[in-house]
Specification:
The structure holds two protein chains of two kinds. Chain A is α+β, with helices and mostly antiparallel strands. Chain A is built from five helices and three strands. Chain B has a single domain, classed as START domain (Alpha-D-Glucose-1,6-Bisphosphate, Chain A, domain 4). Chain B is built from four helices and seven strands; from the N terminus they run E-H-H-E-E-E-E-E-E-H-H. The longest helix of chain B has 10 residues. Classes of the chains: A alpha+beta, B alpha+beta.
Chain lengths: 111, 152
């Protein structure tokens, strides 16, 4: 399914240490391709390839600013997963709270 | 997802003042579920539950504030060991059409005259992300997660 494929791409993107370092750098704020390439000692072309992988995985978004391309963190994929965990946490809390109230009321009625 | 993908586990447990038989039956019976699922609701909403309690059978549930906002969950029963254990495959779907399939194991253990009901839900594909965040300082990420989880 589409969502699973998107998540596959996110995990594949995170499997590379250079791409993780790029994300760490972008965690400090947006940066252009040139600014990102310098500390890694990479060519612009090499760094662009990594950014493209991160962008297709939804982990990074890029915007053209003048003659440069600015990169920033995109947290859409993370939000997707966290959204589900939150939904299920709330569902289980609701179920367990409901059961507890159900039995507490039932026992209270018996006495 | 491949089988090699590590997954996140959601675990919760609660002590309930009833026997494992009573808890198991209340948890799996459709009519009882309709009662306790909404028992604490302050505003009326939609709750629909159907249960075919047999291995390979399924439980379908839909709930929400209105027809346009229904969250749905289908659980297929894999193991039914009344009143000790229930294993299901759950597929949840949101009103906007997203789905997530996970495995759920619920156990009912007798404890101090009541029952400790425990839930273990596996299959959330988040371990890589979680490991990444714990290894690398992604500035602000934890704040965002915390804000997301605690938002009202």
């Amino acid at each position: 399914m589409v969502q699973q494929q998107v998540l596959d791409r996110a995990f594949a993107a995170l499997a590379d240490s250079t791409r993780r370092d790029i994300l760490t750098r972008l965690g400090e704020g947006p940066a252009t391709i040139g600014e990102l390439a310098e500390p890694f000692g990479m060519t612009l072309t090499g760094l662009k390839k990594h950014v493209n992988v991160l962008e297709s995985a939804g982990l990074v978004t890029t915007t053209k600013v003048g003659r440069s391309r600015e990169c920033r963190l995109g947290s859409e994929r993370l939000d997707d997963v966290m959204h589900w965990i939150t939904l299920y946490q709330r569902l289980w809390e609701r179920r367990l709270d409901g059961l507890e109230a159900y039995f507490t009321l039932e026992k209270g009625t018996d006495e | 997802m491949t089988n090699d993908t590590a997954t996140h586990t959601l675990q919760m447990s609660r002590f309930l003042p009833a026997t494992p038989d009573e808890v198991f039956d209340a948890y799996t019976d459709a009519e009882k579920q309709k009662i306790w699922f909404s028992i604490l609701d302050t505003e009326p909403g939609i709750v629909e539950i159907e249960v075919d309690l047999r291995v390979g059978g399924q439980q379908t549930a839909a709930w929400g504030a209105s027809r346009d906002e229904l969250f749905r969950e289908t659980q297929i029963f894999r193991v039914i060991d009344r009143p000790n254990r229930l294993v299901t495959t759950s597929t949840g779907s949101t009103p906007d059409g997203q789905t997530m399939t996970t495995e759920i194991e619920v156990t009912f253990a007798e404890q101090d005259g009541g029952t400790l009901m425990s839930v273990v839900q596996t299959g959330f594909p988040t371990a890589e992300l979680r490991d990444y965040f714990s290894t690398y300082a992604w500035v602000g990420a934890f704040d965002r997660i915390e804000a997301y989880l605690t938002r009202e």
